[in-house]
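user: can you give me the structure for this one chain? tokens are fine.
assistant: on it. calling the predictor now.
[tool input]
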Amino acid sequence: MLSHLPLGLYLVVVAALSLFGAHMGFLLWLGRRMTLGSTPPRTVPLSPAAFPRVTVQLPIYNERYVADRGIRALAGLEWPRDRLQIHVLDDSTDDTTTIARQAVDELRAAGHDIVLLHRAQRDGFKAGALAAGLPSATGEFVAMFDADFLPAPDFLMALLVRRTAFADSRVGFVQARWSFLNRDVNLLTRAQAVMHDPHFFVEQPVRCQQGWTFNFNGSGGIWRRACIDDAGGWIADTLTEDLDLSYRAFLRGWKATYEGDVLAPNELPEDIFSFKRQQARWARGSIQCARKLLGPVWRSPKFSWGSRVIATVHLLGYSLHLFLLAFVLLWPVCQLMPYWFPGTPGFPDWLLWFAPLGVCYPVVMVCSQLVQRGPWSRVWLDFPLAAWLGVGLGFANSFAVLEGFFRAETGVFVRTPKPAGASLPARGIYRARADWTMGFEALIVVALAGLGVEMWAKDFRLWALGPFFYGGGYLFILILQVRELAGRRQARPAAAVSNSAPSVPSLASITDE
């Protein structure tokens, strides 16, 4: 009886993966003729006298390399000074506070309405900082940027004046499209960019234009202050406070808009350990939101049956990693079970009909690159890296998903520091450490290699390519981690450098993509 268990589990996993694949294919089909801009330009220019008051919030925590440039980028926003308030929400415990205070004092002396709000205790992490700053925010609209974001000077003008994004009084937030300043720095950043682009080129615009729920991405967007208050404000009971507030706003009847032709440039993590921590935080936080919000979503009369299904797949999106990990291990096992245990049912041929659903997400990744960068771009080189990266994150993200489902504690918000071009020795104080998942990733590489060899020996030579491919994903992640550790070891003798604040690159020296 136990010999039938792997096949039974495999059928459940295939059903779940097929649902996710069908969802992504459906979004791609709906978005085949869509444009990224959700609202038309204004036909009648908005009078400067009608410009609303805006508060811009910049939450930072130990970001010595990007704090100064981020603050100065906000001060460079084109908006009447008497209607622009800047909040630097600082929870730092290092010299970031000194760097930020110097920039704030200089800009205040130049006539900017800017203030540094420093908290000695990091209660509630980013959500706590945003909530603490909100009572003193005087803007009708609240724009938010993480420390590594560099909005163009006309960002507010683009969303509040040139387009009709907030023309509907029930629009609670507007999200701009992220672009990546360091997209081509190394293999990891290139692969990350290809992984993220489907979210901004397909998922967000389609969900927006269909009137379904989608999420504020935590940065690079603007909230209507009344929406934040009505939805209950920033709450720190999940690790993805942006996703949480987005859904609470929809539950209260608010709408949202995605403006994909307005860019919000920022940086990607440049080392694998920081990236893994970021992804694990997003995975755990999104599942925490699913636990918290799926009940209210399904009970709410504001959601149709179809929108409830879409919201469910959205909130449970990171569980795809858990199902993919199970699939990677169960597929070769189920192929080999009849050889190991005679009489065990073989691999059902009818499951091959589900194979096209498995390629929906890779197709979306390729399409988003072709739309953005053209057919002669490096997409054909970057795509395999992105595919391997997505597979290789499977174990670490699966563990985070299980934590989100079964652990009552919110967990620690481990921020992702951005180097802004700092050298490896200089950024040492912010380096994420290697963790125990490396050992299990190595075991998965060995297991998949062994299963692939066994399948090859049993004349499943075409199917044996599967374990080798998926094992390559875990090997790719493992190699990146070993290289990172080796680079740190080589840089260690040079690490005895001054811990004083580094020089900060000027905005003029930083270009997008």
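assistant: here you go. The CA atoms of residues 29 and 206 lie 10 Å apart. The longest strand covers residues 255-266.
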